[in-house]
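Researcher: Batch entry, complex prediction.
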Amino acid sequence: MPPSQNLLLASLSAPDRALLAPHLVPLTLSIRQSLEKPEQTIEDVYFPESGIVSIVAQSPKGDEIEAGIVGREGMTGLAIVMGNHQSPHQCYGQVGGEGLSLNANRLRAAIAASPSLHRHMLLFAQVFMTQISQTALANGRSNITERLARWILMASDRLGSNEVNLTHEFLAVMLGVRRPGVTIALHLLEEQETISAARGVISIVDRRKLEAASRGSYGVTEAHYARLFPTDAPAAAA
Amino acid sequence: MPPSQNLLLASLSAPDRALLAPHLVPLTLSIRQSLEKPEQTIEDVYFPESGIVSIVAQSPKGDEIEAGIVGREGMTGLAIVMGNHQSPHQCYGQVGGEGLSLNANRLRAAIAASPSLHRHMLLFAQVFMTQISQTALANGRSNITERLARWILMASDRLGSNEVNLTHEFLAVMLGVRRPGVTIALHLLEEQETISAARGVISIVDRRKLEAASRGSYGVTEAHYARLFPTDAPAAAA
DNA sequence: GCGCAAGCGTACATTTGCGTACCGTTTGCC
DNA sequence: GGCAAACGGTACGCAAATGTACGCTTGCGC
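Model: Structure tokens for the complex:
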């Protein structure tokens, strides 16, 4: 099997990869396509190779906010890895792309058969937990501009690209803020020459400056990931 | 071994409990006592029997915010359960109390010896992940009063008591808001006759009304917990 | 029993973000 | 080539939360 573009799969040991390979099914993920719904049994998990998937928390009241994003560095369906069959999160395509899907029962079987596979995925789950808690921190302590800078950097890492295709409206929903708030924040970042924005596209111009603009809201999760998956790190940071 | 006051331990199967029992060491936790520091090897995990422990996320800039709390329904040191030896979180006593500590290596050995023990703790880890993402949601979407109501309810569950001993200052740090903001929010909740507050003590007066005052920010985590640990649920909700 | 510090109440000016609304511009589609 | 929808820019009044600061009470140590 050729090593996948998905970094989590690629960093598996050869035997573990071989365990999953026969059951991986290529899948194109489009925007807003739902992969998991809250309180509903997860049928398949998903390893993105391009594109981004959003994990969204919601309240009974109907409020929503993005808890984290997953790209080619990880996988969806962590509930399965944790031994459950569902989660209280929504999960859907945010930036369209390709990936590999895997039946949840196959994954359970593989995990039961290979402790090292389980360990590997649990480590990713821990990193994802870090991402969520850093999101909680950013939501509570950072302003829109800082959170936007964080989001763009994280998306860029996970896409392996300096360009992100997204509308203001979508970003506003993910960040849990007002749409014109995103417009204004993007203008601020443009003034600082950290990014350039056109209709539906945001490009990173000066990554270092953009990291500075995030004022500490970006970096902890990425450092955690780099520590646990050293081989992937350069690629993820590229 | 008498079943512990810690609900996670109490809900273990008898053999799994027996596996841990010889290594559990009673420990009194005082306020602000640190149990884990970010990027530092975790020596012991901790099962509270009373009191509350805060898990706090921090940014390189020095900003802090509470990602979640743990009481007698759970445990600290989930990083060990996930196969790592550290986490990027702070972890310290928030409301003083008693508990049982367990050496991290002993825990690792027990997990290796008993898949069912591992499964059990991973399910708690999944619930805790839910708690963190709901915190992210509350931080982004709820106002101070709602978040405060949520915090009081969660603390009450985890303490098994209607009274919580805490200063405004402490709450302000945890919620990531200004101290007088907490004072004002508490007054609002008092006006609604949901709580009564005295110097350093908050008492729940009308739990239903307080839940309503949280406007949907409370409940998702607790429902998730109740689904996975059915026997504990009545106790945790009492 | 006095003093001091911790805890709490309050005030004011300021900033940030919100809700809403309207309008120009681009884009895709027929 | 024309039209509708999606997208983005801007404006206005308003609410929420902030930073800062001052002062009162309560309780504990000496």
